[in-house]
Write a structure and sequence with these properties.
Layout (H helix, E strand, L loop, with lengths): L2 H23 L2 E5 L2 E4 H14 L8 H25 L7 H14 L5 H9 L5 H22 L7 H11 L4 E12 L7 H15 L1 H8 L10 E6 L5 H7 L11 E3 L2 E14 L4 H31 L2 E3 L1
Antiparallel strand pairs: 1-2, 1-7, 3-4, 3-6, 5-6
Helix pairs in contact: 2-3, 3-6, 6-11, 7-11, 8-9
């Protein structure tokens, strides 16, 4: 055999050995109904979640991979349920672009081009992000179609609250983070809460939200964003009363589980309040809050009916 043939045969051997190595690394880890999750899927999810919440990288790799696996399980379950309930699991591109815009603005980025460059640092293609956001949006649409009729908002009471605070021309807002969790038996509440408190002490509230929260906000460290004081119901307001910055509440009972809230920031906005405009904002916020609770209840029900098998 001449030198050229030897080099070529060695190259082919190395190629197939490399291909075989990658095949072994990318193994099937879980089967969700008829869908699968591979080790490569989990690695990609780890990169995606790290891009959305850079603080996640403060955790050890084992914990990040566990968070990523649980995040993918939630996504696959939602995808299965979406396909069961609709023949057209596709969103309008313009609507998707608007959601993408809110996502990169929340990261402090100004343009989609900046967002694409940012994602490349985490080895993520924008097309993957589009698919993930599409599943989130379709799930939200499904929840709305099923539960919007159950939303209960006392508009007159909200209007009175706004008028009461209108004299000061000042709006108080909180930047809130949440951890939503559930337990099998009420006797386990103290045990679970103690685990969460220990994790907050060791890794911070944001990383603990990623570890323990069953809400979709877990992807972004539990961030709910800026919330108007007028939009808080009496139970939530009472739980936040007296909390300083970075402190968090005791578990609050909500439909489908328990809620822990942290005040990350506070601010007062001094401006002339348009009562009707303010009322519309608060109604939107309260609608989203109730829909999120319905979403968690619905998801837990769907999860019990879906086959999840580790391979």
């Amino acid at each position: 055999m001449n030198l050229k043939k030897i080099i070529l045969s060695n190259f082919i051997l190395i190629f197939f050995l490399t291909l075989s190595s990658h095949s072994l690394e990318n193994k099937i880890v879980l089967k969700i109904d008829q869908d699968i999750i591979t080790s490569l899927d989990i690695e990609n999810e780890k990169n995606y979640l790290s891009a959305l919440n850079p603080n996640l990288r403060e955790l050890n790799n084992k914990k990040i991979l566990e968070i990523s696996k649980n995040s993918l399980i939630r996504e696959k379950i939602k995808k299965v349920e979406i396909l069961k309930n609709t023949n057209k699991a596709k969103l309008d591109n313009n609507y998707l672009e608007k959601i993408i815009e809110t996502r990169y603005i929340s990261l402090g980025l100004k343009t989609k081009k900046e967002f694409i460059a940012y994602l490349k640092k985490f080895d993520i293609d924008i097309g993957i992000v589009f698919k993930k956001i599409e599943i989130e949006a379709l799930w939200n649409q499904l929840v709305f179609s099923k539960f919007s009729k159950n939303i209960n908002i006392d508009k007159e009471n909200l209007r009175k609250k706004i008028k009461l605070n209108n004299n000061s021309n000042k709006i108080k807002e909180f930047f809130l983070r949440e951890i939503v969790f559930n337990i099998q038996e009420k006797s386990n509440l103290d045990k679970e809460y103690n685990l969460i408190k220990k994790s907050i002490l060791e890794t911070g509230f944001e990383n603990t939200a990623s570890l323990y929260s069953i809400s979709d906000t877990a992807k972004t460290g539990g961030a709910l964003g800026w919330v108007n004081e007028n939009s808080l119901n009496s139970k939530i307001k009472e739980a936040l009363l007296g909390l300083d910055l970075k402190q968090y509440s005791e578990p609050i009972t909500i439909p489908g589980g328990f809620l822990i809230l942290q005040i990350s920031e506070k601010r007062d906005i001094k401006e002339k309040i348009d009562i009707e405009v303010e009322l519309k904002k608060i109604i939107n916020a309260e609608t989203n809050r109730q829909l999120n609770q319905f979403s968690n209840i619905y998801f837990n029900k769907v999860k019990q009916e879906i086959s999840i098998n580790e391979i």
